[in-house]
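In this supplementary section we document a worked example of the pipeline. Step one takes a protein sequence of length 246 as its only input; no multiple sequence alignment statistics are reported here. Step two produces a three-dimensional model, which step three serialises into structure tokens for compact storage. The input and output of this example are shown verbatim.
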Amino acid sequence: MTGGRADRAVVALAATAAFLVLVPFTLLALLVRAAWPPLYRLDAAVTDALHRYGLDHPDWVRLMSLWTDIFAPHPLRLATGAVAAWLLLRRSPRPALWAVTTMAVGGLLGALLKLLVGRHRPELLDPVARASGLAFPSGHALNATLAAGVLLLVFLPFAHDRRPLRWALWAGAVLIAVVTGLSRIALGVHWTSDVVGGWLLGLAVLAATTAAFRAGRARPGRRPARNGREGVEPELAESGPDGTAR
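The serialised model returned by step three reads:
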């Protein structure tokens, strides 16, 4: 298979992946919007169980509160912006633009969908934490997924020949996304389906913007990148801090 055909095949695969992730997200959003009783009962059961646990374990609540503050949307956007600035200093504007675009598109979609679905947060007696705004999808889960994915795909080029480091990057990205989402449920400020919706939307946006980035690489001299091992721009590891080839 020629480079052009391989790149088009990978772009089509990534676009298909984005579509397939959007299918369960759309179904979940429709069930939430319709207040489907089985989903509500499941959400309520998980929230009640974790709320009781939090009331009995204040140290757990403090840990979850600290985690959710560190990996809140605003700090994650700042971290992504700092990485984008670093990429610009390395004369790599394309991945910098991709990183900023991914966070912006995901954030705007999340805000719009909150208004369209119009779901309220859990209302608990004696809450262990409070949050304002609408619930679905969880902004923390969405932005943690986006930022973890962006940072993973930016830094993977520096680890593609080092399996332990590559696995550490993957583990760190998954940990940030998963624990951030779970912290919102543990604190009683989101339903479980809110967090699942945030994860799914984040994955869909990542798949879509990565597919678009791959399409931009489909030109002579640009080989297809194995995103899971080499990130979005393998050439990052082949240049020095000033963007010149090593």
